[in-house]
Design brief:
- The structure is a single chain.
- The chain is α+β, with helices and mostly antiparallel strands and 349 residues long.
- It has two domains: 89 residues; 240 residues, BirA Bifunctional Protein, domain 2, CATH 3.30.930.10.
- The protein has 13 helices and ten strands.
- The strands form two sheets. A seven-stranded mixed sheet has the order 1-5-6-10-9-8-7, sandwiched between helices. Strands 2-4-3 form a three-stranded antiparallel sheet.
- It is elongated.
Amino acid sequence: MKEKVNELKKEALEKIEKVTNLKEINELKVEYLGKKGLVSELSTYLKDLDLNEKREFGMILNNLKTDLNNAIDSKIEYFEEQELNQKLANEEIDITLPSTKILVGSPNILEKVVEDVEEVFMAMGYDVVDGPEVEEDHFNFELLNIPKGHPARDAQDTFYLKGDEILLRSQTSPVQARTMLAAGGDKPIRMICPGKTYRRDADDATHSHQFMQIEGLLVDKKVSLADLKGTFEVVAKQLFGESCETRLRPSYYQFTEPSVEMDISCFACKGKGCNICKHTGWITVSGAGIVHPNVLRNCGYDPEVWTGFAFGFGADRIAMLKYGINDIRTFYQTDLREVDNFDRLEAEN
């Protein structure tokens, strides 16, 4: 049996050495190592051998297969390398031909605005925090001085998921409440929370059922509207330029008292009046105010000791104003013809 194996091995190696192309070597592989090949035929002798002989002959057959496989693979590698070299020698690439232009996207302008705002506030010592988008009514409304039955709940047009207890957050203010509760009522807080919010708005050029909101909170001792005004001025000048002016106007929100709306001078007409500012010279960008004592109390802070201010604005609106975008839906499209403009808009600003 060993003689047959040695003869077969010698014969196969001689043939492998003489092949001249890939077709021939692949045919040899089938002839010797295929399912019905000559090596497989030798396996039929195993049934006539005793256990020790089977073990010894099996090892011989395995060694034969390994040797033939190595020899064949070496030849295949040789011929493939030859074929590749021949192609490289015969084929030429004309590098002067125009390339195929592939449309690619650009970083989203909305994301860029959020990052810009984060950098401004982090430079002032604020933390950037996050919270759940699927929220409890307790955090979204009750802790923020909006009890059950309050008409403001209807005005929010909230997406309820499970009864009236679980919902898609209609604002990022719940993160403020969670942050105050986690602080234990005895530590100052400086935080902002950028994130998605959801309301039952009909989608059009200026409204969306999903939008990006950035809310902030500062809690400390002896905080006043002057601190809010100073903070707002820093942010406005960073986003819209040093010539940007700011003002506060009285307003009303359930979770702040007193409440204000924050305006910036119109960057398009410089206060003269245009369509962007509705001929007032001012653009409203944020709602804010001094944190309501009930909110502080609900979240574990003594309003006789601690005060603070809170603010919130839509990142979408800031981006639309800053980059002259007329349709909020542009931020959420995947049309590369649209998002390809983001690089240009950023360069122009």
